[in-house]
Design brief:
The complex is a heterodimer of chains A (393) and B (296). In chain A, 69% of the residues lie in helices and 5% in strands. Chain A is mainly α and 393 residues long. The chains are: A mainly alpha (393), B alpha/beta (296).
Chain lengths: 393, 296
């Protein structure tokens, strides 16, 4: 290849980058992503997705009831915040329960919620009620202070786990969920852009003009890189926004964890995009019109969708056989492995094997995709068969 | 000089090119004519490297065509194609830069071409917003914008109005005469080819049927035809001259085919003795007639 020709793919990449950056669908997808992530992050900040728990506890009754509530708040501190709101009568407490301003009501005889009472809140209130009752009995029988302390000194059983879940699993699952959602959107969306970009050039017939100036591989490389860089830039923007929002709204997400997760998502996007993009391009080159795209793209889309569903499933059970296998197989690793890494369950050898297989197969697939592309891209009219495309190149 | 050497190409069971060889010298305009499906587009695509030959070679300036050489070629494909949503000037600059022309030079060339080709419309308008005729002119500009050393144009005149035909003819002449480019284009407008081209290549069923200047073609291919117009003569006066065959007779004008040995002056003498000769002379075969001759 001659000297001045090396830059051709850069020109192609730059055009694909800028043209799509200016497209309305890019703006819409960016806003949509930012919107969805805002909702998810803010829901976590409100405790909806298992962030740092906090409860509003109503009380109806005398000072002893309030004492129970306050004791529960003391017990919960600092892990669980309990705010106590006294109400003069059951009716006003019930009204507050209905409008959502409190989570539960405690009375002389009852602890009740709107539909149910959170188990953590229940445990706190029951324990504090029990303690206060015991204290009352001690006081009545003039039990000396030293004995009281001995009686209430509990020696709880030591907790353990054969396979301890990493700390912050719950928080990390939230981060992993957002990450895999983003990855799925980016891999699918930008893969489709590669496919439609290829068809666009075929349908407008400019591809023959382009291929009289440069080689098919340069055109393909430029297109994949240009669109991929745009996807990467969008991903970085959205990740930065999500981290900023999460930290600003006090979701309890550790900054280091969030940044590490974002880097993981970005890294696995590059790998996954590298794997899928040449397939999308090859599929696009087989047809000449946008309407025919669906027919050839289904196998790739299904693969990505199934990988996504497995990844979401592995948020709950990241060590299931399916989750482990999916995180290692190249067709699904880009979505399934980052989830397991963020959850802290992927072992070193699994990550290494998954990376090796994904990078290896991406490197092997690029020439396959490029050959199919080169063999099919100049054939207009009816859909090109894979075998013909392969032979033509 | 562009040389196509013994090109063969088949598509499944169809033989598109069956040993095609011809040359396009620099500074000359070569017309590439043939019936639909004769192999013109396939030959041009192979010359441009858009398609590979099964066998044979394409050479430019005595070396096999490589990527660097190809970047100095200009091409107008039969299937016109531009990015419909890209702006006219931006698109021309982009296509020139893909072929290695520096940005500033590309821009200057593009602006000059848009003026020369009389493209009506805003250079910053999207291509799709132009009329088809103007899109066609932009397509031509796209083939020329990097100042190519070789121009390969597939049916460049189709779809152009008479003014457009004149403008394009002028542009091609200038490219060949003033800039020394080798120009080859295909066309079905044979009168135009006859007027514009220095040489003609005639392809038929994947083979070169004839190549040369139009005069050379006439000399080699045309029948030796002479026409004689007599006033009010109905006799078969020519029958006394050996080696003379009547071809057609219309309104008192008869066209005779003469064997090479037959002297036209003898024909004139016999005609004058038969009656008043109103007109006498050789029939100059048009390219149209030569074409029919060759492909029939």
């Amino acid at each position: 290849m001659n000297g001045p020709d090396r830059g051709a793919w850069r020109l192609i990449a730059a055009r694909d980058f800028w043209v799509r950056l200016r497209e309305r669908s890019f703006l819409i997808s960016t806003l949509l992503n930012v919107g969805v992530i805002s909702v998810l992050v803010l829901a976590r900040a409100g405790g909806g997705l298992g962030g740092a728990p906090s409860f509003d506890l109503g009380t109806v009754g005398g000072s002893d009831v309030v004492d129970v509530a306050n004791a529960a708040a003391t017990l919960g501190y600092p892990d669980i915040t309990v705010r106590v709101h006294p109400y003069p009568d059951p009716a006003s407490a019930d009204a507050a329960l209905r409008d959502g301003s409190i989570d539960a009501v405690v009375t002389e005889t009852q602890l009740y919620g709107l539909e149910s009472v959170d188990q953590r809140l229940e445990a706190l209130v029951q324990t504090s009620a029990h303690q206060i009752a015991v204290e009352a009995v001690f006081a009545e029988h003039h039990v000396p202070e030293a004995q009281r302390a001995a009686a209430s000194r509990t020696s709880p059983l030591a907790l353990g786990a054969l396979q301890p879940a990493p700390p912050d699993r719950q928080k990390n699952a939230g981060v992993a969920f957002i990450g895999v959602l983003l990855l799925y959107g980016q891999l699918f969306g930008y893969g489709m852009w590669v496919a439609t970009g290829v068809i666009e050039e075929k349908a407008s017939r400019i591809v023959e003009m382009l291929l009289s100036a440069i080689r098919p591989r340069q055109l393909l490389a430029g297109k994949i890189i240009g669109i991929g860089v745009l996807g990467l830039a969008q991903l970085i923007t959205i990740a930065a926004f999500a981290i900023g929002l999460a930290l600003a709204t006090g979701t309890g997400v550790v900054p280091a964890t969030a940044i590490w997760a974002a880097l993981l998502v970005i890294g696995w996007f590059i790998l996954g995009y590298g794997f899928y993009a040449s397939l999308f391009a090859a599929a696009g080159s087989l047809v000449s019109r946008m309407e025919e795209l669906q027919n050839v793209i289904v196998p790739i889309n299904l693969t990505i969708l199934v990988s996504f569903i497995i990844s979401i499933g592995s948020l709950q059970d990241p060590n299931s056989t399916l989750a482990v296998v999916a995180s290692i197989l190249p067709v699904s690793a880009a979505l399934a492995m980052p989830v397991r890494i963020v959850l802290g369950v992927a072992s070193g050898w699994q990550i290494a094997l998954s990376l090796a297989l994904l990078i290896g197969s991406a490197v092997a697939l690029v020439p396959v995709g490029a050959r199919l592309y080169a063999g099919a891209v100049l054939r207009t009219g009816s859909r090109v068969r894979l075998r013909d495309a392969w032979r033509a190149a | 000089m562009l040389e196509l050497l013994d090109l063969h190409r088949r598509f499944r069971d169809v033989v598109a090119l069956d040993g095609v060889s011809f040359t396009v010298p620099e500074g000359r305009i070569v017309g590439f004519v043939g019936r639909n499906g004769a192999g013109k587009t396939t030959a041009m695509r192979i010359a441009l490297g858009v398609l590979d030959a099964d066998q044979g070679q394409v050479r430019w300036r005595d070396a096999p065509v490589d990527t660097a050489a190809r970047r100095r070629f200009g091409y107008m494909p039969e299937e016109r194609g531009l990015y419909p949503k890209m702006r006219v000037l931006e698109q021309l600059v982009y296509l020139a830069r893909l072929r290695g022309t520096p940005k500033a030079e590309a821009r200057a060339n593009a602006e000059r071409l848009l003026a020369t080709l009389e493209v009506v419309g805003d250079p910053d308008a999207r291509v799709e917003s132009l009329s088809l005729g103007n899109q066609q002119r932009v397509q031509l500009a796209a083939a020329l914008v990097h100042r190519p050393e070789l121009l390969v144009l597939d049916e460049p005149f189709s779809g152009l109005d008479p003014v457009g035909v004149d403008v394009l003819s002028g542009v091609l002449r200038r490219a060949a005469r003033d800039e020394g480019a080798a120009v080859v284009f295909s066309s079905h407008q044979l009168d135009l080819v006859e007027r514009l081209c220095d040489e003609v290549v005639l392809i038929d069923q994947g083979r070169i049927a004839a190549q040369g200047t139009i005069d050379e073609l006439r000399a080699s291919r045309a029948r030796n035809l002479w026409q004689v117009q007599l006033r009010d003569v109905s006799t078969r006066w020519w029958e006394v001259i050996p080696g003379t065959t009547p071809v057609r007779s219309v309104d008192g004008t008869i066209v005779l085919e003469l064997l090479p040995a037959t002297d036209p002056q003898r024909v004139l003498d016999v005609a004058r003795s038969a009656g008043d000769v109103l007109a006498f002379g050789p029939v100059r075969a048009s390219l149209q007639e030569l074409f029919r001759e060759v492909v029939s």
